[in-house]
Write a structure and sequence with these properties.
It is built from 7 helices and 8 strands. It is of the alpha/beta class.
Length: 210
């Protein structure tokens, strides 16, 4: 009887029973292949901040498509679809209302739902204003504020214009550089434009005086 096996207690016990017993070293286990290194996913490139002029032109285009006005939440969402990197804070604004206020072609007002809306206004450059016209503008502003105060702090803009004309028969907001009475009210210090459906009101701005 011949035996064979690796050197162990079992092979030593079996050796006397065999005419010959051969021992060998067991083969070393082959190492497992190393897992291929997986590179970490690259962070996405931040979206580029668009040019201000491009954003304003797109905002005006959206307002035109929406019939001339849009709530600021919806307007911002659509601007971000067009410009993924858009964030009004990039221009130092704390929110959309402060970002759009004073921009050419856009007026911001509080709607009947309590939220802020943007409306499209004329973007044509105002005519050259003389010293006399500038003085007339300030007189008209003071009169408009007084009439709104007299009405209890709120006056429909068509009625406001009629009452201004009753005092200043030569009043014409377009001759003073405004596209219409809504544009005049939006620019008047101490007043703000409030929209309720298709009707607009001039209301006293909170904390305004004079």
């Amino acid at each position: 009887v011949f035996g064979a096996g690796p050197e162990s207690a079992l092979s030593r016990a079996a050796r006397p029973l065999c005419a010959a017993y051969f021992t060998y070293e067991p083969a070393a286990a082959a190492p497992l292949p190393a897992s291929p290194a997986v590179a970490p996913a690259a962070a996405p490139e931040p979206a580029a901040v668009p040019e201000l002029d491009e954003v304003l032109e797109e905002a005006r285009a959206i307002l035109r498509a929406d019939g001339g006005r849009s709530n600021l939440g919806g307007l911002k969402s659509r601007l971000q679809q067009r410009f993924p990197g858009f964030d009004e804070r990039a221009w130092g604004a704390r929110d959309m209302a402060s970002f759009l206020r004073g921009r050419p072609g856009v007026a911001v007002y509080r709607g009947e739902d309590g939220g802020f809306w943007a409306a499209l206004v004329s973007v044509s450059p105002p005519p050259r204003t003389s010293v006399r016209d500038a003085a007339t503008r300030q007189v008209a502003f003071r009169l408009a504020r007084a009439l709104v105060d007299q009405a209890g702090g709120r006056l429909e803009i068509g009625g406001l214009k009629s009452q201004v004309l009753a005092v200043l028969s030569s009043f014409d907001e377009r001759a003073l550089g405004f596209s219409g009475i809504a544009d005049f009210v939006a620019a008047c210090p101490g007043l703000r434009l409030l929209g309720e459906g298709s009707t607009y009101f001039a209301v006293r701005a909170p904390g305004a005086a004079g």
